[in-house]
Amino acid sequence: MGLPVRSAQLLHCNDISDFDVGKTLGTGSFGRVEHVKAEKEILTLLSKDRHPFIVNLDPTTLYMVIELVIGGEFFTHLRNAVRFPADTARFFAAHVVLIFEHLHAKDVVYRDLKPENLLLDSDGFLKITDFGFAKKVSFRTYTLCGTPEYIAPEVLLNKGHGKGVDWWTLGILLYEMLHGDPPFMDEDPLCIYQQILNGKVRFPRAYDKTAKSLTKKLLTSDLTRRFGCLKMGVFDIKMSKFFANFPWDQLMRRTLDPPIVPELSSPNDTSLFEDYPEEEEDATPPEYEGADPFEGFSLGVELPRVPRARQSWRIRSPPLFVRGDTFLAS
């Protein structure tokens, strides 16, 4: 069994001084993720000189505290295993199906699925993180964003996209879990985009046959044929042969035995995350067109990127005309 994490403690804390800042668990384009532990209780908070009828914020910085998930990045577990057997891939893919089913029911499109944005909790179940590119979309949107290897063809063509892009990324993730690499790869993003538009996926002989059938139905550029986008919606995926007799209700109740259970020594063990340099850096406010909606607050700091496998990006012009690893708004 995994280790319990009492994330509910965070509800009793509303000041940065109420946390012990621990190890940096990751960095991204716009800030760091810190492991923090609640220390002081509500009685200590009441002793502070604050007005009882005004919500309280830190005087200089805006913080966002989320649940601590200590099982490590799914990316790391996949790379250590190289590839997963079909049963393991099925278990984790089912999490993503349920996640997207829930988000899409609320008209939210995630748009940035990849192993780097999935975490394992202490029991071995998946948690999705990083909602920076998620958007409420009732029909379609035109923002060009994502990770090159995972981008759907309709995004590249800049004709508008919707929930179907998430089901495309599920197909990419399923392929990567079973093969070890995504189906479209190249050092030059332009070559990746061309491969995606060509739409040819090569399956190794050892690729699970039922998974191959589902992967093909997810990785079709024709939205009128892509699973998840048809009349039956997510049920086409759930009822596919790859998920035949899969216990969806048991997964939702977390009563299944995960194929990977992180080895942790305590609820605060962060050994499954990479080490990042702990540095104090001056906060630099982002640039705004017009009035700063958070005047008086620093929203974070642009930190040097630790080399990772893939970076997400957002641009406003077709990516086929952009070269290099850095994508800037036009």
Automatic annotation (TrEMBL):
Q: What is the lineage of its organism?
A: Eukaryota, Sar, Stramenopiles, Ochrophyta, Bacillariophyta
Q: Which protein is depicted? A: Protein kinase domain-containing protein
GO terms (molecular function) for this protein are:
ATP binding; cAMP-dependent protein kinase activity
What UniProt keywords apply to this chain's record, in alphabetical order?
A: ATP-binding, Kinase, Nucleotide-binding, Serine/threonine-protein kinase, Transferase
Domain called Protein kinase: residue spans: 1-243
Q: Where is this region: Disordered?
A: 259-289
One Pfam family from the record: Pkinase
Gene Ontology, cellular component aspect: cAMP-dependent protein kinase complex
| Gene3D superfamilies membership | Phosphorylase Kinase, domain 1, Transferase(Phosphotransferase) domain 1
Coiled coil spans: none
Tell me the ranges covered by the AGC-kinase C-terminal domain, including all copies: 244-309
InterPro entries registered for this protein in UniProt: AGC-kinase_C (IPR000961), Kinase-like_dom_sf (IPR011009), Prot_kinase_dom (IPR000719), Ser/Thr_kinase_AS (IPR008271)
Q: Which SUPFAM superfamilies match?
A: Protein kinase-like (PK-like)
